[in-house]
Write a structure and sequence with these properties.
The chain is α/β, with parallel strands linked by helices and 297 residues long. It has two domains: 206 residues, Spore Coat Polysaccharide Biosynthesis Protein SpsA, Chain A; 69 residues, no CATH class. The chain has eleven helices and nine strands. Strands 1, 2, 3, 4, 5, 6, 7, 8 and 9 form a nine-stranded mixed β-sheet that branches. Strand 1, helix 1 and strand 2 form a beta-alpha-beta unit. Helix 1 runs parallel beside helix 2 and helix 9 packs across helix 11. The termini are far apart. The mean pLDDT is 94.
Amino acid sequence: MQASFVIPTYNRSTCLKDCIEHLFEQNFVKSEFEIVVVDDGSTDDTKEVVEDLQNGAPIEIQYFRQENQGQGIARNLGVMKARGKIIVLIGDDIIVTPDFLREHMKIHNKYHEENVAVLGLILWHPDTNKTPLMNFLTDGSAILGRFGGHQFAFEKLAGKKMADFNFFYTSNISLKRSLMLKYSFDPIFSKYGWEDIELGYRLTKEAFMKLHYNRFAIGYHLHDIDERSFKNRMQMIGRSAKVIDAKYPELKKNPPKWKKFVFSVLSSTPVIRLLKKDSPMYYYALSKKYFLEGLEE
């Protein structure tokens, strides 16, 4: 078997169903890839939804369940159970195009080295209500051409064929299974925040990973994000910043005191009130406010 899609999921059975049904439409030999779903302790009808999809599916679907431990640990289990030579990591809210797998495999078939990985392009799904906040989250050049893109920053890869570990986006990336069995997600990151970048950095540092970028391997992100989820996300990133800083101080993910002071001033209530709501600067200030809250916990 050539490839395995590994999909961690938690209480999102509706979008998971949509995600899987689009995988059925891949322009690829159906017997040459599989879907591995790892249920991270869902309390909704995820199990029943997957069982319904398994009946008569054109592609084999494996289903595994674990207690809620986080998506990194769920992916580790999925990789262990997968049978494909190539592991394709996507989220349960990613809707792929028909040539998605073919575009990933095109690179892997050209470069057989174990340390070769492939990053695809992630765009907002047309059905999402694309807000100024969501635009900010995917524009790494929103502030002074340098800051923003707290979720994805693909505009920085325009015209490039290679990416570094900062673009190790597990919503659309593929690696050799043999490599992932040697380098798994660190279980210390039990919640969201840096578990993907940490693995990307470790692969670069120890396995000399070569991350190829193929903008034709397109996955659409079907997930609206509001200020509440943005707050939770940035707080979790703040909490995890201390963890990754303890492992890799050279990355300087835990800001020095002077920078924390600047962030605290920028994100203070009086300053935020002066900023135009829904502007990139407004969301940048909020991101620092929530990040510092997580960092201080």
